[in-house]
Sequence to fold (88 residues):
Amino acid sequence: MIVSTSAMKEQKLTEFSNEKLIKEEANAKLLLATFIVSVTVMIALSFYSFFTKGFSLVNLSVLLFTPIAVMLWKNYQAVKKEIGSRRF
Fold:
């Protein structure tokens, strides 16, 4: 899988050094956690908006971020799998 959160140039995870792979895992984990917190806040605000002002298309905007969450999760899992395969 070709993945990299920290570099502009995409590289295969198998080409990363052990140190870079550990750094990549930390970056992917931080990015995923930040995104999850952001989406949780968006969901809470969407519910608040729904109950105070009624339904609107803004309430559905959270669904647009689902593919990004899936991509970030797969990226994090791929990095963890590569680290596991190397058995430090």
User: Anything to note?
Assistant: The helical segments are 18-53, 66-86.
